[in-house]
Structures are given as structure tokens and as C-alpha cells.
Amino acid sequence: MSDHISKQFDLELETVRTRVLQMGGLVEQQILSAIDALLSGDIERFDKVIVDDALVNALEVAIDEDCQHIIARRQPAASDLRMVISVIKTITDLERIGDEAQKIARMGKIIYTSERYQLPRFREVSKMAEVAVNMLRRALDAFARLDASAALELAEEDKGLDEDFTAELRQLMTFMMEDPRTISMSIDTLFIAKAIERIGDHSKNISEYVVYLVKGKDIRHTSIEEIKREIGLTAG
């Protein structure tokens, strides 16, 4: 491969990586807007999150097409091929995070436009959202810096968000048993909490793709201890 072609190929890969981070920024904004609207009851903001999901979908399609063209024209190998594969996987999870943000907005709009016995209390949900957004930011940062150690650390932390969801589920079940009038409110809140928990799952997936990209090791079905032993990473 000539220097000119090699530089052009490197530029194409870097452009694709940049677009992934652009998509990640848009998805993060979608989550923040949905949660802010949830706390304030801003119907217009809910509507904007719902409409803007089309932008996330369009970015996924465009980046995926770029990757297909790179594969067809450049026939990448080794780390370059892992980069393209990781990008394709990452944008799929980002698109699904966008879907979860849209779900939160749709449910929030229903909550605030329907007559309810009482509005849900979103304090715990808001805390969960902070954790999920932080996970997404750190996963994208690990992707940008090709930091496998940071990505592995994040993969370990997803358990905390799962535990928060379980605690919220138990609390909501208690509300429903103590006062049947809270059933509708509790189910709405549970739907939103589950969407946030899924955002954490997708962020964890992205961090796992970073480890694959940097180390060439698929860690999706491997224990953290095994991973550290096999590829010599330490968390923290």
C-alpha cells in the first residue's frame, strides 16, 4: 500500500471514529433532555426528544454505510478490521440507547398528559440516570482514547446500576401492595427505570468493544477475573 493510500485510509478510519463520538454526544443529549423533561414536566422537550431520535437513526445508517465502503474498498486486516467491526457494533448500541431515551420521553409525556392519582417520584430514577449517563461518557472516552483498562473498569461497574434497578423495583412493589392507587404510577416509574438500566447495559457493551478493539479479545461472555488473567489488565 502506497503512503498516499495509507494516509487516506487512516483519515477514513479517523473520520468514522469522530462520527461515532458525534453520535455518542447526540445520544447523551437525548438522555439528559428526557430526564430533565421528566423532572420538569416539559411536554415540548419530550416531543423534541421523540422527534430527534430520527437524527440518531440517520447517523447510525450513515456511519454503517461508511464502514461497509471501507470494508469493500480497503479490505482492512488486523487492528484496522477490529476498528471497523467495533464501530459497527458501537453504533448499534448507541442507536438502542437513543431508543431508550425516546421511550423515557414517550412515557413521560403520557404521565404528564394523563389524569393520575399522583405523579411518580423521580428522585431515585434521576440518580440512576446520572450513573447511566456517566457510564456512557466513560465508555465513549475509553473508545476515543483506546483505553482498554478504563473500559474494563466500566464493565465491572454495570453491576451497581443493576442493583439500583432491583432496589427501585422492590420499593415500587411495596408502594403497590400498600396502596393499590399507586399501581399506575409505579408501573410508569418502573418502565422508565428499566429504560435507564438498559442504557447502562448498552454502555457496558461499548466498553467491551473497546477491549476487543485494543486487545483483540472478545470479553462478552467471560468473567472479569478471567479477562484480567488472560490479557493482563488491571482495573483502576
From TrEMBL:
Keywords: Cytoplasm, Phosphate transport, Transport. InterPro entries: PhoU, PhoU-like_sf, PhoU_dom. The keyword Transport applies. It is found in: Cytoplasm. SUPFAM superfamilies: PhoU-like. Its main location: cytoplasm. Residues 21-106, 125-210 form the PhoU domain. One of its GO terms (cellular component) is cytoplasm. The keyword Transport applies. GO terms for biological process: intracellular phosphate ion homeostasis; negative regulation of phosphate metabolic process; phosphate ion transport. Plays a role in the regulation of phosphate uptake. Homodimer. Belongs to the PhoU family. This is Phosphate-specific transport system accessory protein PhoU. It comes from Craterilacuibacter sinensis. The gene is phoU.
